[in-house]
Specification:
The structure holds three protein chains of three kinds.
Chain A (H helix, E strand, L loop, with lengths): L2 H10 L20 H11 L3 E3 L1 H10 L5 E3 L24 E5 L2 E2 L6 E4 H4 L4 H4 L2 E6 L8 H8 L6 E5 L4 E2 L7 E2 L7 E5 L1
Parallel strand pairs in A: 1-10, 2-3, 3-6, 6-10
Antiparallel strand pairs in A: 4-5, 5-7, 8-9
Chain B lengths: L2 H10 L1 H22 L5 H17 L1 H14 L2 E6 L2 H14 L4 E4 L3 H5 L2 H7 L3 E4 L2 H8 L16 H12 L8 H18 L2 E4 L3 E3 L4 E6 L3 H8 L2 E7 L3 E2 L4 H14 L6 E5 L7 E7 L3 H5 L15 H5 L1 H6 L10 H11 L16 H5 L6 H16 L3 H14 L1 H17 L2 H4 L20 H9 L1
Parallel strand pairs in B: 1-10, 2-3, 2-4, 4-7, 5-8, 7-10
Antiparallel strand pairs in B: 5-6, 6-9
Helix pairs in contact in B: 2-12, 3-12, 9-10, 16-18, 19-20
Chain C lengths: L5 E4 L3 H6 L1 H13 L3 E3 L9 H8 L4 H11 L4 E4 L2 H10 L7 H9 L1 E3 H8 L12 E5 L2 H6 L15 H6 L6 E2 L15 H4 L1 H17 L4 E4 L2 H13 L5 E4 H9 L1
Helix pairs in contact in C: 2-13, 11-12
The chains are: A alpha/beta, B alpha/beta, C alpha/beta.
C-alpha cells in the first residue's frame, strides 16, 4: 500500500460528525481607504509618496542600478530584466506596478507579470510599487473577491520592507529582502 | 524529561526569567491591542474555528482535491506517512538534483521530523535562513518558540556567536549591525543554493496552491533563486477555498506578533518555467490525533504561537523546559499524543487558567484538552501511590464522618507541630509560603454552635 | 428578594477548615440580602482537587454525595468560582442520577454572580474606604465569565466591581496584568512549586506597586496562596474574600 493510500484510508476509517462550512459575511471597514492604507503601510515600516515624491527619492539617493517594469516610469531604468535572477543581486532600485492594495493592512497584490522575475521584489535593495488609489479595497475578504480564481503561477501580498525582530524583539528593517518599500499612490 | 525540574532551573536566574516573561508579555500585549482594533475579531475566530472543523471532518476529500489541482499546475505531490519517509523523500530529491547544499526557511514540521540532522548525516549542508533559526543553528540549539526561535537569547549572546561564526566585531550587540552581517552572509547562501526548502502556512484545496508567510522574505529569497522548491506540509494545514485565506491571513499575524499582516505572503500555484516545485504531505501521527475525539481539534492549530505568549508558565519556564518540538500549551496537547510517557509531565505544567484558549485564533479548547490528557495519563500510569491516595481521598470525601475525622486530625496535627516540622523541606507548600493561621474552630463547628 | 426559595450554602472544604470567617461572611451577607440560607452539615468536598490531578473517574462517590446533600435546594451558592465550575463542568456523570445532576448544574452559582444575576442586585450600598485590588481567579474569570477577559474583544464588565463600586470611599485599583493567573492551580502549587511561587510573587508585586491596601477576590485558594507568600516575605498588604468586604460594608 502506498503512503498515500495508507494515510487516506486511516483518515476515512475515522468516524466524524459532519461540520458545515460557514459563509464569510461581508465585513466592512469604516473610514477613508487611502488614509487607512497609508497608515497601514507606515505601521509596516513602509512609506507612501505622491508622484513627485518618486523623482525626489531618486534624485536624493545614489541608486546605481535601477530597473522599472512600471510603464509610466520606464525613463528611470538604466538596466534590463536579465534572464537569470542571480544577476539582479546588485540591483539598487526596482520600480514595479501593483494590481491593488488592501487598506486594513497595507498589503499589495502582485503576480508574475508585475514582477518580471519572481526574485525581483525580494533581491532588490530598495523597492518602489506604483499603485492606483482607485484600486484600493477595504480588507482581505474584498481582496480575494477581487483576485477571483484566475490562474497565476505566483502571487504575492507584499505589505512592507523586509524586517525582523528576532534579536531581543528590536525591530530591524532590511533583513534578507528589500530594505525599503515606497508606495507611489497615483 | 521533567518540566518541574527544568522550570525550577530556568527560574534560578531570576533576572533572566523576568526578562523572558516581560518580553513575551510584550508580544501578548501587542496582540491584544491590534485584536481590539478589529471590530469583528471574535466573529473571525468563530469563522476560522468552523472552517477548520469542516476541514477535519472532510480531510480526505480536501487532500485529494488539493493533490489533483496541484498536479494539474505542475507541482509534484508526495505523501509521507512518517518523519523517516519525509526525510528520505527530501534526500531523494536532493540526490536526484545532485545538490549538496540547501537553504531552508522556517518549518516547524521539519523540526518535528529532525530533518536537519538527517540531511547533515547524509552529507548535505543545511542553512536555516530565518534569522532567529540561523542564530539557534549556530548555537546547536532547537528553536525555543515556534514563531520567535531566539526569544530566549539576549543580544550579547547573539553577538558572541556571530563574532565566532561571522567574524563580526567582538562586543558589538547592536541588532541592526548584527542583522546586516546575517544579511550579507545569508545572501551568499541564497545565491548559491540550487534547492530551497520551505514550510507551508496554508494549502488551498480549491486551487492546489500553498501560501508561505514571512517578514524577512527569506523563504522567497531561497526559492526564487533556486531551481527546486521543496515545501513541507502537515496534512492538517489544508483549507477549503482561496477565499478562506482572507479569514486566516487576518488572524495569523495579529495573533502571532501583533502586526496586521506579515510583510510577505507568497502564493505558490505553479513553478517558474524550467523550475520544479515539490510538496510533501506529511502524516507523522496526525491521523492518530484525528482519531482521538477529545484531542482532534488540536489539529486546527495554525502555529501562531499566541498560546505560548500568553501562558504564564511558558513565559516563566521557557520553550526548552517542555522538551518537545512544539512547546507551550498547544505543545502540551500535541506531544503526549506522540509519546505519552516522555511528555507525561506536560499537561500538568499548567494551572488550567484558560488564557491560551481565549487567544487561540481557531478556538482550540487547549486548557480543556490539558485536563483530559491528565485523565488519560493517570489511567496509563495504572495503580501507584498517587492513585491510591486519591482513592482514599475519594473515600474520605464521600463520607462526612471520615471527612470530619481526617480534617479534624489534620488541623489538630498542624496546631501541635513545631514550625520546624511544619515547614521542613518535606512540606513543599511551606518552602516559600506560610500556611494559613489556624482558626480555633471550623465553620461547621461554628454553624452547629450558632445556628442549629 | 427571593421569596420562598431555599438556598443551600456550599462551603469549599479548605474554607470550612481554614477560613471559617469567609463562610460566616457569606452566610450573613446572603441573609442581609433577604435570602433563606441553610448550610447542610453533611457536605464534604466537590472533588475538584482529585479531578484536576487526573482522577476524575475516582470522584464518583464524592460527586454522588454532593448531589444528595444539595438536592432539595432551589439554589446552591458558594464563595468559590473554581468549585462551582467543577460541579458544572468536570464532575463525572453519576449513573442513575443524570437528571438530578443536570438540575444541580443549572442551579449552582458563585456568590457574586448569584447576587448580580439572580438576586438582581445592581450594587451594594455601604462604606468601605480602602484601596482595593481585585484578583480575577481564573476559573471564575474564564470559566464562569464573571468578568470580561483581557484576551477577548468584548465590552468590559466585572460583576465583583459592579457590586463594589458604589461603596463609599472604595478605590478600585487598575493593575498591569488584570487577569493573569496567581499560580495556585491546585496540586500545581506543590508539583510545580518554583513556578507557582514566582507567579504568586509577580501578582503580589502588581498589587503592591499600585499601593493596593486590600487584595480581594472570589476564591480563597488563590488568596491563601498569595497570602502565604506575602506573609513569608513580610509584605504589607491585607487579604479579604469579597464576601467579607461586602458583609462588612453593609453593617
Amino acid at each position: 500500500m502506498s503512503s498515500r493510500e495508507n494515510i487516506l484510508s486511516k483518515i476515512i476509517s475515522i468516524p466524524r460528525d459532519g461540520k458545515p462550512l460557514p459563509e464569510t459575511p461581508d465585513f466592512s471597514l469604516k473610514g477613508d481607504l487611502v488614509k487607512l492604507f497609508t497608515q497601514s503601510i507606515q505601521a509596516n515600516k513602509g512609506e507612501v509618496v505622491g508622484e513627485e515624491g518618486l523623482a525626489d527619492i531618486i534624485a536624493q539617493n545614489n541608486f546605481k542600478k535601477i530597473l522599472s517594469l512600471a510603464s509610466q516610469y520606464e525613463e528611470f531604468s538604466n538596466t534590463e530584466l536579465p534572464a537569470d535572477p542571480h544577476q539582479l543581486k546588485d540591483l539598487d532600485l526596482a520600480i514595479i506596478a501593483g494590481q491593488f492594495g488592501v487598506a486594513e493592512n497595507g498589503a499589495i497584490w502582485l503576480t508574475d507579470e508585475n514582477m518580471g522575475l519572481r526574485a525581483l521584489p525580494f533581491i532588490t535593495e530598495h523597492l518602489v510599487i506604483v499603485l492606483e488609489k482607485k484600486s484600493l479595497v477595504a480588507n482581505m475578504h474584498g481582496a480575494y473577491k477581487k483576485i477571483g480564481l484566475p490562474h497565476s503561477g505566483f502571487g504575492l501580498f507584499i505589505a512592507g520592507p523586509s524586517k525582523t525582530a528576532d534579536i531581543e524583539q528590536s525591530l530591524v528593517i532590511g533583513a534578507h529582502g528589500a530594505k525599503s518599500l515606497r508606495v507611489v499612490l497615483v | 524529561m521533567n518540566h518541574p525540574q527544568e522550570a525550577a532551573e530556568f527560574l534560578k536566574d531570576a533576572a533572566n526569567a523576568k526578562w523572558h516573561d516581560d518580553t513575551l508579555w510584550f508580544v501578548r500585549d501587542k496582540r491584544d491591542k491590534i485584536s481590539k482594533s478589529v471590530p469583528e475579531w471574535e466573529a473571525l475566530r468563530e469563522l476560522a474555528s468552523q472552517i477548520k472543523d469542516n476541514v477535519l471532518a472532510n480531510l480526505e476529500t480536501y487532500l485529494v482535491e488539493f493533490e489533483k489541482n496541484a498536479k494539474a499546475n505542475n507541482i509534484h505531490v508526495h505523501w509521507a506517512k512518517d518523519a523517516a519517509e519525509h526525510n528520505q523523500i527530501v534526500l531523494d530529491i536532493l540526490n536526484e538534483h545532485r545538490c549538496q547544499a540547501i537553504v531552508k526557511s522556517k518549518s516547524i514540521l521539519t523540526e518535528e521530523c529532525h530533518l536537519n540532522p538527517f540531511l547533515e548525516k547524509n552529507g548535505i549542508e543545511v542553512v536555516d535562513t530565518d534569522l532567529g533559526e540561523r542564530i539557534v543553528q549556530f548555537l546547536n540549539q532547537p528553536p525555543s518558540h515556534i514563531v520567535l526561535p531566539a526569544i530566549h537569547l539576549k543580544k550579547m549572546a547573539i553577538s558572541d556567536v556571530f563574532h565566532e561564526k561571522l567574524q563580526t566585531e567582538k562586543g558589538n550587540d547592536d541588532p541592526y549591525y548584527l542583522t546586516q552581517a546575517a544579511r550579507k552572509h545569508l545572501r551568499e547562501k541564497f545565491l548559491g543554493a540550487k534547492v530551497a526548502i520551505t514550510g507551508v502556512n496554508f494549502g488551498v484545496a480549491e486551487t492546489g496552491e500553498f501560501v508561505v508567510c514571512t517578514n524577512e522574505g527569506n523563504a522567497d529569497m531561497g526559492v526564487h533563486l533556486a531551481d527546486v522548491h521543496i515545501a513541507c506540509m502537515g496534512i492538517e494545514k489544508i483549507i477549503p477555498k482561496r477565499e478562506h485565506l482572507g479569514v486566516f491571513l487576518r488572524l495569523l499575524a495579529r495573533s502571532a506578533t501583533g502586526q496586521s499582516i506579515t510583510n510577505y505572503n507568497s502564493h505558490f500555484r505553479s513553478p517558474s518555467p524550467g523550475k520544479e516545485i515539490h510538496i510533501i504531505l506529511v502524516d507523522n501521527g496526525r491521523t492518530e490525533q484525528l482519531g482521538r475525539e477529545k484531542f482532534r481539534n488540536s489539529l486546527k492549530c495554525i502555529r501562531c504561537g499566541a498560546c505560548m505568549n500568553t501562558c504564564p508558565i511558558y513565559r516563566r519556564s521557557g520553550g526548552f523546559s517542555y522538551g518537545s518540538t512544539v512547546p507551550g500549551p498547544i505543545g502540551s496537547v500535541l506531544s503526549p499524543g506522540i509519546d505519552l510517557k516522555k511528555h507525561s509531565s506536560l499537561p500538568f505544567a499548567s494551572t488550567l487558567c484558560g488564557s491560551c484558549s481565549d487567544v487561540c485564533p481557531v478556538k482550540i479548547n487547549i486548557h480543556e484538552q490539558l485536563y483530559e490528557w491528565r485523565q488519560e495519563i493517570t489511567k496509563a500510569q495504572g495503580t501507584n501511590a498517587k492513585s491510591i491516595s486519591m482513592s482514599i481521598a475519594n473515600g474520605i470525601f464521600a463520607v462526612p464522618f471520615a471527612y470530619k475525622i481526617s480534617a479534624g486530625m489534620m488541623r489538630g496535627a498542624l496546631k501541635i507541630l513545631p514550625d520546624s516540622i511544619t515547614y521542613s523541606g518535606l512540606n513543599t507548600w511551606g518552602k516559600q509560603r506560610d500556611l494559613p493561621e489556624l482558626p480555633k474552630e471550623s465553620f461547621k463547628d461554628w454553624y452547629k454552635k450558632n445556628r442549629k | 428578594m427571593l421569596q420562598n426559595k431555599n438556598i443551600g450554602l456550599f462551603i469549599p472544604c479548605y474554607v470550612d477548615q481554614f477560613y471559617p470567617n469567609v463562610a460566616i461572611a457569606t452566610l450573613e451577607l446572603l441573609e442581609k440580602l433577604g435570602c433563606q440560607v441553610t448550610y447542610p452539615l453533611g457536605q464534604t468536598c466537590c472533588g475538584q482537587p482529585m479531578a484536576n490531578a487526573g482522577y476524575e473517574r475516582d470522584t464518583i462517590g464524592t460527586t454522588k454525595h454532593f448531589l444528595k446533600t444539595f438536592k432539595d435546594f432551589d439554589y446552591i451558592v458558594a464563595p468559590s468560582g473554581s468549585c462551582v465550575l467543577h460541579v458544572k463542568e468536570h464532575s463525572p456523570t453519576v449513573p442513575g442520577l443524570e437528571s438530578e445532576q443536570q438540575a444541580t448544574q443549572h442551579k449552582i452559582y458563585e456568590l457574586t454572580e448569584f447576587i448580580t444575576d439572580i438576586l438582581k442586585i445592581d450594587s451594594i450600598r455601604g462604606s468601605y474606604p480602602h484601596k482595593v485590588g481585585y484578583h480575577a481567579s481564573c476559573h471564575g474569570q474564564r470559566g464562569l465569565r464573571l468578568a470580561s477577559a483581557s484576551e477577548l474583544h468584548e465590552t468590559p464588565f466585572n460583576k465583583a466591581r459592579q457590586l463594589l463600586q458604589q461603596l463609599e470611599g472604595l478605590e478600585w485599583v487598575e493593575l498591569n496584568r488584570k487577569d493573569e493567573c496567581c499560580g495556585f492551580g491546585g496540586t500545581f502549587a506543590v508539583t510545580e512549586e518554583a513556578l507557582s511561587i514566582q507567579m504568586g510573587k509577580d501578582r503580589l508585586e502588581d498589587h503592591i506597586s499600585h499601593d493596593v491596601e486590600i487584595l480581594t477576590g472570589g476564591d480563597m485558594s488563590c488568596i491563601m496562596h498569595l497570602q502565604g507568600i506575602a506573609s513569608r516575605n513580610k509584605q504589607n498588604i491585607q487579604f479579604k474574600h469579597i464576601a467579607e468586604i461586602l458583609n462588612e460594608a453593609i453593617s
